[in-house]
Known about the structure:
The protein has 323 residues and is an alpha/beta fold. The protein has helices spanning 11-22, 55-65, 79-84, 86-107, 140-159, 188-196, 224-234, 252-263, 287-293, 302-315, and strands spanning 2-6, 26-31, 46-49, 69-72, 111-117, 162-168, 170-172, 203-206, 218-219, 221-223, 240-244, 250-251, 269-272, 281-282.
Amino acid sequence: xxxxxxxxxxxxxxxxxxxxxxxxxxxxxxxxxxxxxxxxxxxxxxxxxxxxxxxxxxxxxxxxxxxxxxxxxxxxxxxxxxxxxxxxxxxxxxxxxxxxxxxxxxxxxxxxxxxxxxxxxxxxxxxxxxxxxxxxxxxxxxxxxxxxxxxxxxxxxxxxxxxxxxxxxxxxxxxxxxxxxxxxxxxxxxxxxxxxxxxxxxxxxxxxxxxxxxxxxxxxxxxxxxxxxxxxxxxxxxxxxxxxxxxxxxxxxxxxxxxxxxxxxxxxxxxxxxxxxxxxxxxxxxxxxxxxxxxxxxxxxxxxxxxxxxxxxxxxxxxxxxx
Length: 323
């Protein structure tokens, strides 16, 4: 298929493009490179530098490419920033997404796969989290993603655009070619790797008194190549929202211990106060995506996820070249 990937120069988008290309699809990346990197765009893909805030640029790109489907990764993702600057998140994550949908209608594109998040659920009443649970985000970031999911429902009803929303849990790991390089970095595994490499004095554990087996928060880490696999399957099957996770939880301490074991280095640790809004346990109930999309993760072992991230950072000690 001919796939138009908005935000394809970012962390997850770049690996998804690589996965699609490896499986015979044609890929065009549309990205303003605000948070992505040109070096993260697979050389087999076509890159169009453009901004979702500019409707004319999107419309022209879609009319030029004439894709069979759109994958939408472009978004602001930092939860803490959304609590300071909510307007930026609603503008970028909702209004710019509406621009993309309007351009899709104009160009006759009838399918979109949306990069959503488990943050739309807020504090779950129980775990694992399943799709029919209440959706009550606790941050503007999560709210912006839920708002766009609702927008998609109306574009299906009014314009006939089929959609799949993939609600990620904790994306992690790297392919051999593309990896994680955020500025600033906020994700646990790359932060622990930085501490192991001596690039930060320690890794802080924000609270060790949660109601979890070792007192630290538990999350469901999913390899980006397994996310890419779900996106590719969603090109031709499925409708609505799906949780995408392994269904296996790992604590902050487990992640730190795994990085230390994989890297064979000590990781200095400091215990800090809990952060407001941190939820003790988030684990995906992913039966629906397995049953309806035929998806199965290939990377269930935390060690293999961490090893892929470590190997990518060892091969790219400074990440991607910075402007």
